[in-house]
Automatic annotation (TrEMBL), chains A, B:
Broad enzyme group: hydrolase
MF GO annotations: (S)-2-haloacid dehalogenase activity
Name by which UniProt lists this protein: (S)-2-haloacid dehalogenase
Organism the protein comes from: Ramlibacter aurantiacus
Similarity field: Belongs to the HAD-like hydrolase superfamily. S-2-haloalkanoic acid dehalogenase family.
SUPFAM superfamilies per the UniProt record, alphabetical: HAD-like
């Protein structure tokens, strides 16, 4: 680990993973589902919906050609697949569209907004997400996430962990990769960023997958910083 | 013209041209130059610098292939060309770099920030500029421009007035072109947006090219709205 003070001096841009790191997708999907369909096991539903996301995204990422699929479309395909399993196959088109937009209405973790407000006084704070610009903009507007800039897979025409996304973030701001720090709750993301020369900060999100499920635990040795939440990150970066 | 009230109901996204429409490039370049090199005709310098921009951009836009040139590089090429004409060829690399970054430090027109704060209560407000994401982010951060999202030519790999930029803005937010309104002080931009089905609002910026020069005047008939500044636009859209 580099000394946090030296880190804060050398980093210009903090790029944040969003789903799980900044917003609580599991709790938010559970909240929406309980309000609409209280008879359903909302925990299992949220987990099933998200579980389909990785494979869907890999399928899209592995396809050649210029085709670009919105995250909304991926979420919708998975939703249509899982609805029958939860006894919700009677949902009509309008109800499915509304439910699918729940991913635009994810709530931030309680520390996210106050921490970003502090961090943006000192750093450029941006998203670096596989979510698309439209979804991330709607989410930020509703949740009050004060991004300086929304960067996402669709800007780079590549999904994380493709190196083009991480090096692209540095190129956008005309800085070296070491002047960008990825902040994420997921090792695969941080490892890919580090391989591109970015700094990395791991954030603990023990509730990412719900109260009963275990979230990723990660040792201190690989990342430049290890924070228990984003306010802790702001403290450690002197912001 | 559609009735302003009906317009406000049907529009979701306000996409803003930036240089000239939201920020005062001429006055800001003059300010920087006067502070650094008071002996130079700052008015003429600002005009010469900007005059090179259109042709440079057209040169880049007409080139085939995936090459993408940052606006910083275009500005720098023009700067290097014009410095001798103004007796500034002795500027060293650091001075040239600093001066070139003046385009990141453009001041907003006095109405821009308060108007955007009002407009974003009701609409998604984003940039739609040929400037790149990094430049626009730095500018917004310094000037306090409260964008929900920064969209620019580099997101779409095309420069305005290429239709890909205008239709791209609608696609990003998953809305129809008629739900996006381009706000600009330049007819060529508004005309191209309208040809793609966007709504258009012309904003008068009589001082865009400096106090002595004439700026674009435009009749009322072609655009959905005509505003004397962005606060007037907010009034007309009921924001």
């Amino acid at each position: 680990m580099t000394h946090p003070h030296a880190l804060a001096q050398s980093v210009e841009v903090l790029a944040f993973d969003v789903f799980g790191t900044v917003v609580d997708w599991h709790g938010s999907i559970v909240r929406e589902l309980r309000a609409l369909h209280p008879q359903v096991d909302a925990d299992a539903f949220a987990s099933a919906w998200r579980a389909g996301y990785g494979p869907s995204m890999q399928r899209v990422a592995s396809q050649a050609g210029p085709a670009w699929v919105r995250v909304d479309e991926l979420h919708r395909q998975i939703l249509d697949e899982i609805l029958p399993r939860f006894g919700l196959d009677a949902l009509d088109e309008a109800q499915r569209r509304h439910l699918n937009r729940a991913w635009h209405r994810l709530d931030p973790w309680p520390d996210s907004v106050p921490a970003l407000q502090r961090l943006k006084q000192r750093f450029t704070v941006c998203t670096l997400s596989n979510g698309d610009i439209g979804l991330l903009t709607h989410m930020a507007k509703r949740a009050g996430l004060p991004w300086d800039c929304i960067l996402s897979a669709d800007v780079f025409r590549a999904y994380k962990p493709d190196p083009a996304v991480y090096t692209g973030a540095a190129r956008v701001f005309d800085v070296s990769p070491a002047e960008v720090m990825l902040v994420a709750a997921h090792g695969y993301d941080l490892d890919a960023a580090r391989a591109c020369g970015l700094r990395t900060a791991f954030v603990e999100r023990p509730l990412e997958f719900g109260p009963g499920a275990s979230a990723e635990v990660r040792g201190h040795e690989r990342d430049d910083l290890h924070a228990c939440d984003l306010l802790d990150l702001a403290d450690k970066l002197g912001a």
